[in-house]
Amino acid sequence: MWIIRTASWNLDLTPDLISMKLQEERSSKKSRFPLQVRQSIPVSFRQALNDIYYDWVDTRDFLAEIVSLVPSHNMRIFVYRYILGIKLGTLTTVHRGCRFYFPSGVAIGNNCVINRDVLLDGRSGLTIHDNVSVSEGSAIFTLDHDPNSPTFENRGSPVVINNQVYIGSRAVILPGVTVGEGAVIGAGAVVPHDVEPYHIVAGAPARTIGHRNRNLTYKLNYRKFLG
Ligand SMILES: CC(C)(COP(=O)(O)OP(=O)(O)OC[C@H]1O[C@@H](n2cnc3c(N)ncnc32)[C@H](O)[C@@H]1OP(=O)(O)O)[C@@H](O)C(=O)NCCC(=O)NCCS
């Protein structure tokens, strides 16, 4: 729908910005609706729809945050899966205090451990494959702002974490990154680029400091009492 399509991740869609975007739409001629129809929708109504959309998004993020404090893993997983739309595989655990941006954009495979206080951002799509360990306090982002944009435009790119990756505590993974199978991200690393399979990276920006054996046989299944 055109109205929703214009609702980008820019939270400050002022009437001026909306007019600018309208102008872009007109010149790009991509809209499915004739110009007369688009012009007939008042700016204030479009702004109201935009606000409702973001209130709904915020509400879901807030629900995910509240649920993260419930000391029952089964209950948390139920809400994540069936109410918030997070795709969660079998024997995957999400420990207490984790936060999600746009939960339905997050997909996690089997036998993963998402440890306490991790932040997972699904706004541009986050895929975590099987047997991945994400340690306490890490953050994986899929959206940021173009620092050179006069209007502070958003830019997003999906993140993919492949099988058997181990992410150390308080690592930060930036939008657009793919972490190859079996790779290790050191504690506190900042990862702006793709990581090769079975490389061990650390530091900010993360650089290869070693290589991991390929004969990994473990399957994660780490569930804490009270979650
Ligand atoms: C990345 C990691 C797995 C590397 O382990 P390793 O392969 O045994 O590496 P080493 O300890 O031999 O260190 C190799 C070099 O990298 C450096 N290094 C290791 N981890 C680092 C990190 N997180 N950040 C920066 N440098 C790091 C070491 O200082 C060493 O440098 P040096 O040779 O100049 O002394 C480990 O250091 C790490 O960060 N683990 C995560 C810990 C954690 O988050 N625990 C909670 C999960 S339960």
Could you characterize the architecture of this molecule?
27% of the residues lie in helices and 22% in strands. It is of the alpha/beta class. The strands form 4 sheets. A 7-stranded mixed sheet has the order 2-5-8-13-16-18-19. Strands 1-4-7-12-15 form a 5-stranded parallel sheet, with helices on one face. A 5-stranded parallel sheet has the order 3-6-9-14-17. Mean pLDDT is 87; it is low at 1-15. Coenzyme A is lined by residues 135, 168-169, 184, 186-188, 200, 202-203, 209-210. The site of coenzyme A has 12 residues, from strand 18 and strand 19.
Q: Could you list some keywords that capture this structure?
A:
227 residues; alpha/beta; UDP N-Acetylglucosamine Acyltransferase, domain 1; seven-stranded mixed beta sheet; five-stranded parallel beta sheet; 5 helices; 19 strands; disordered N terminus; binds coenzyme A
